[in-house]
Each structure stands twice: as C-alpha cells, then as structure tokens.
C-alpha cells in the first residue's frame, strides 16, 4: 500500500503536519491527489507519482523522478515501504 490510503496516507499527512514536503507514491492517481490536497493544507509541497509499490521498476522510476527535485524537497530523504533512509 502506498500513500493513497491507510497507513501510507496517514504517514504522508503526519510528515506534512511537521512541515515536510512529500513525494507520494501509490497505484491510484486519484487517491494520491486526495492525499496531496490534504498535505498541502499544511503549506508543504507535494509530488504525485502513480506507481505500483510491488513493482521494483516502477518504484525505481518514481524515485528517479524525485532525486532531481531533492533540493526543492530538502536534504533529508525518507523512503518508506522499502525502509530506505538517507
């Protein structure tokens, strides 16, 4: 499960509440857009990236789209689901 619902959505919103900009991944774009709208209420930037979290190629492609924007999203990067922290 990604950031579109459940624990993933709750985690994204929790990060946004602390002021963290968030890149949101999940299969369903409409669910991600809903999560993004909720996160933006806290004044943060969001990036919506539809991807199947069980497909390593799709996840890697999404992460590749986030990396060039790291300076917009700040120096700290946390990648949930595969437990990647940088």
Tell me about this structure.
By secondary structure, the chain is α+β, with helices and mostly antiparallel strands. 45% of the residues lie in helices and 16% in strands. It is built from four helices and four strands. The strands form two sheets. It has a two-stranded parallel ribbon. Strands 3-4 form a two-stranded antiparallel ribbon. Strand 3 and strand 4 form a beta hairpin. Helix 1 runs parallel beside helix 2. The chain is globular, with a radius of gyration of 12 Å. The C terminus is likely disordered.
Number of helices: 4
Structural class: alpha+beta
Share of helical residues: 40-55%
Number of domains: 1
| CATH evolutionary superfamily | NAD(P)-binding Rossmann-like Domain
Rg, please?
A: 12 Å
Mean pLDDT: 81
Q: In CATH, what is the class?
A: Alpha Beta
General shape: globular
CATH architecture: 3-Layer(aba) Sandwich
Order of helices and strands: HEHEHHEE
Largest sheet: 2 strands, parallel
Strand residues, percent: 15-25%
Strand order of the largest sheet: 1-2
Tell me the span between the first and last alpha carbons: 21 Å
Q: Low-confidence spans: pLDDT under 50, at least 5 residues?
A: 82-86
Look up the CATH topology.
Rossmann fold
Q: What is the count of β-strands?
A: 4
């Amino acid at each position: 499960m990604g950031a579109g619902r459940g624990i993933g959505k709750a985690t994204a919103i929790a990060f946004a509440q602390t002021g963290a900009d968030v890149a949101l991944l999940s299969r369903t774009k409409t669910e991600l857009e809903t999560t993004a709208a909720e996160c933006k209420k806290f004044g943060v930037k969001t990036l919506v990236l539809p991807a199947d979290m069980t497909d390593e190629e799709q996840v890697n492609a999404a992460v590749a789209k986030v990396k060039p924007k790291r300076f917009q999203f700040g120096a700290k990067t946390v990648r949930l689901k595969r437990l990647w922290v940088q």
